[in-house]
Specification:
9 helices; single chain; mainly alpha
Length: 247
């Protein structure tokens, strides 16, 4: 078991593994995106209250969910790096930061577009919206902190501490609609008394969640290879790959 853990901590192995796996994950993601968008935009019926406007949910909800999921991955990876000095964990956190920031920005933009016809305003300092905006600032702060400190190791440690501390915002985002008065609608699926959405609307949503998950996995593997090459550009294994044309 420890041999496998050590193997997955080896940059050359992870580089080759991610290079072989990422194209297949990318194709699976594209397939799920096509299927999910067809089900959500064509097959699913209009909502009885919002009509056709609700269909932006099939992008907004997965983007919002992924914004939190990716930050948790980043925080856990940062904790592993701080505790066990595992450089690959720090590489995962670094590779995840920009992807997570993109998901958060997409969630805020689509939420604003959805809010205009339903709330009558593009933006409201609502608890859910504000805490999601704070999440975007945490991502951007992590990225800026890494690049602002000249010594890479010090920058990585400082950014890792920020990621770990910032994870307290995740439950605030999730439970904000229950803790405070909010314009944002409460949970429609993860309810004790069962989902309030029809199955014909739920299935496309889960397909899109799967598509977003695979999209993240694909881009993480691609970005991880770039980060590892940049960090290990003077090492023997990178020189051998350059020589053999296997980059």
């Amino acid at each position: 078991m420890f041999k496998w853990i050590h193997k997955f901590g080896s940059p050359p192995f992870v580089y080759g593994f991610s290079k072989a796996l990422s194209p297949w994950i990318g194709l699976a993601s594209l397939g799920l995106f096509a299927w999910g968008l067809y089900l959500g935009l064509v097959k699913a019926p209009p909502d009885y209250e919002q009509g056709e406007v609700y269909r932006i949910m099939y992008v907004h909800v997965p983007a919002a969910w992924m914004s939190m999921f990716v930050y948790v991955v980043m925080a856990i990876s940062s904790a592993v790096f701080i505790i066990w000095r595992m450089k690959l964990a720090d590489a995962v956190a670094e590779a995840s930061a920009f992807i997570g920031a993109s998901f958060t920005f997409l969630a805020l933009v689509t939420g604003s577009i959805w809010g205009r016809p339903t709330w009558g305003t593009w933006w409201e300092w609502d608890a859910r919206l504000t805490s999601e905006l704070v999440l975007l600032f945490l991502y951007l702060g992590y990225i800026a902190l890494r690049s602002a400190i000249e010594h890479p190791q010090s920058g990585a440690r400082a950014a890792a501490i920020l990621a770990i501390v910032g994870v307290v915002n995740i439950p605030i985002i999730h439970f904000s609609v229950e803790w405070w008065n909010s314009l944002h609608q409460p949970a429609s699926i993860t309810r004790a008394d069962g989902p309030t959405m029809h199955i014909s609307m739920i299935i496309p949503l889960f397909v899109m969640l799967g598509a977003f998950q695979l999209y993240y996995a694909h881009h993480l593997l691609v970005k991880l290879r770039v980060v590892m090459l940049e960090r290990d550009r003077r090492t023997k294994w990178v020189a051998e790959r350059v020589q053999n044309g296997k980059l």
